[in-house]
Design a protein that fits this description.
The protein is α+β, with helices and mostly antiparallel strands and 563 residues long.
């Protein structure tokens, strides 16, 4: 898989546990290579908006907080590989009613206090105590989690009913020290000015005037010889493309942006040192409000999908850099060979193809025709109103896609305008007070389950317009999908899980509750002028994130080294 051996020298391990199944591929970050140069200050720039001196790891924390605090594991959504961090192993027991996680020995918090399994158990019970910081829904009323206790080097998660997919969310929770956070009674507002973590970097300084966060190497980090870097400076800028201008001047080493033509604007000026890493891990989708007429008609939704030229969207909104190899089921390309029902290929391809003539015929078959002015009229004889397509204000990629979709739907007789929204973008989707919207799939994970879980679980839905949904922004649920999600969660048998996913895929192709528009990728641009060890398509050890998303950024910080 690797064209060359990165200095991270990842060791690939395969682990089999007591329930008799091969777990996802385990990837360790060690042993440390002896052929690298230590030191250097990595300079990162990104439009992260105005920053405040807030290092709360649970809510509203400053972006590089994920380099100070660590989770149990990092699960790479591209390939389902697992990097052990504070956890070293896990096992499902008692018919999937117990999850046993073994934690790492000889780890210390950055203030010198030993890290133990009790810190892990405390963190999860702290989330239970303060539900407002439980962003992953670890203790939600559908998680089935009953208790979390420490026992020696193990942490035992006990469930009332099996819920094996919850491991993905458990793995990503940032662990905090009990001896500090047990005294914090207002975790939603606490700004944590002196963060104490186990991560490879510790906080040094925050410059409030120009939004620069400085982190320095943790000299007592548990992974011997890591990190290679001495310091990371995280610079936030306030406008799009300012970060790219800084990068082009050679003042910074990495950024995360999609407001450029990466090949022309970034790589062409210096193809030797300028690189991009845009792996697909999600999709941009068109939500149609299934609670509103005429979007509540599956055939109407299918016609809209057929009328949209998806490759044109990629070319126009992302300069062709994203590619288009998605599937209308919503299954990301890297998971299709494992999770896509091969018997559905023909129907999926048919739905994906740009075919406005078929779209028009399909609308006619359900009673929609054009009047003399070319506007679409419903079976009741009434002309359809002009619909709004919601996008975030200033989101140029979504604005571009919306304008093209508007032109294409006009050919069907459907009138639509792009509505750039600020504070109401999310609330209008959540309350069902929208017609159409462009967004990303609300759930991502190492298998399609996580996307379907967020999109269609009725627990996240609302029952009528005006109520607030947690996700399920298509306002579509289906009891067959609900049953399939339950079947998946009740087992750790991949064959049973696969059949459950196949069931959902078939329904999604039939009912078209959303429309896949383009790949959604990571947007990492970097220079190798000063540092090596970046992720690449040949070595995709993270999903193309920066230092402000999840532990993928932490793993990248451990792999980078001075040239």
């Amino acid at each position: 898989m690797r064209k060359y051996l990165l200095v991270i020298t990842l060791v690939l391990l395969f682990s089999v546990f007591s329930f008799g199944q091969v777990l996802p591929q385990f990837i360790n970050i060690h042993p440390t290579s002896t052929n690298v140069k230590y030191g250097g200050t990595l300079k990162w720039v990104q439009n992260a908006g105005p920053l405040t001196d807030d290092f709360n790891p649970f809510i509203n924390g400053i972006p590089p907080v994920t380099l100070i605090y660590e989770p149990l594991f990092y699960i790479n959504e591209l390939n389902n590989s697992i990097t052990p961090l504070l956890g070293t192993a896990y096992e499902w027991e008692d018919n999937n009613l117990k999850l046993v996680v073994t934690v790492r020995n000889e780890v210390k918090w950055s203030d010198g206090t030993p890290f133990t399994a009790s810190d892990v158990a405390f963190t999860f019970n702290y989330l239970k105590q303060y539900p407002a910081i439980d962003g992953a829904g670890i203790w939600s009323n559908i998680s089935n989690l009953q208790s979390v206790v420490a026992s020696g080097d193990n942490v035992i998660f006990t469930f009332s009913k099996p819920n094996t997919p919850l491991f993905y969310y458990i793995a990503g929770v940032l662990i905090v020290p009990e001896h500090i956070w047990s005294n914090i009674k207002t975790p939603t507002t606490y700004m944590n000015p002196n963060p104490v973590g186990t991560g490879p970097f510790v906080f040094k300084n925050f410059n409030a005037s120009n939004y620069v966060v400085t982190l320095v190497k943790n000299p007592n980090y548990w992974l011997s010889g890591r990190p290679y870097l001495d310091e990371i400076d995280f610079q936030s800028v306030l406008t799009n493309n300012t970060d790219l201008l800084y990068m082009l001047k050679g003042e910074y080493d990495g950024t995360y942006t999609n407001f450029i033509d990466p090949q022309t604007t970034w790589i062409k000026p210096d193809p030797q040192d300028h690189h991009m890493y845009w792996p697909t891990y999600d999709a941009n989708i068109l939500y149609l409000n299934c609670a509103k007429y005429p979007f509540n008609i599956p055939a109407f939704r299918e016609a809209i999908s057929l009328a949209i030229n998806k490759p044109l969207l990629v070319k126009s909104a992302y300069f062709g850099a994203n590619g288009y190899d998605f599937n209308p089921t919503g299954v990301v390309p890297s998971q299709q060979s494992e999770w896509l029902d091969p018997t559905l290929s023909a129907s999926a391809n048919e739905l994906n193809n740009y075919n406005p003539q078929k779209a028009q015929a399909l609308l006619a078959s359900i009673g929609f025709t054009k009047d003399s002015a070319g506007n679409l009229v419903g079976p009741d004889g009434k002309e359809l109103p002009t619909f709004k397509l919601d996008v975030g204000a200033g989101w140029q990629d979504y604005i571009t896609m919306g304008q093209i979709i508007g032109q294409e739907l006009k050919m069907l007789g459907i009138n639509m305008v792009v509505d750039q929204q600020t504070t109401t973008y999310w609330s209008s989707m959540a309350t069902g007070e929208y017609d159409m919207a462009i967004c990303w799939e609300t759930g991502t994970g190492p298998t399609p389950y996580y996307m379907y879980y967020q999109e269609f679980n009725p627990t996240f839905a609302a029952t009528k317009i005006g109520q607030t949904a947690i996700s399920d922004f298509s306002w579509y649920t289906n009891p067959e999908i609900t049953n399939a999600l339950t079947e998946y969660a009740n087992t750790s048998d991949p064959n049973v899980q696969k059949q459950a996913i196949y069931t959902i895929e078939k329904i999604v192709l039939r009912d078209v509750p959303f429309i896949i528009l383009t790949n959604r990728t990571g947007y990492l641009e970097y220079s190798t002028a000063h540092f090596n060890g970046w992720p690449t398509d040949l070595d995709p050890y993270n999903i193309g994130t920066g230092f402000d998303f999840n532990a993928g950024g932490l793993v990248m910080a451990l792999n980078l080294y001075l040239k």
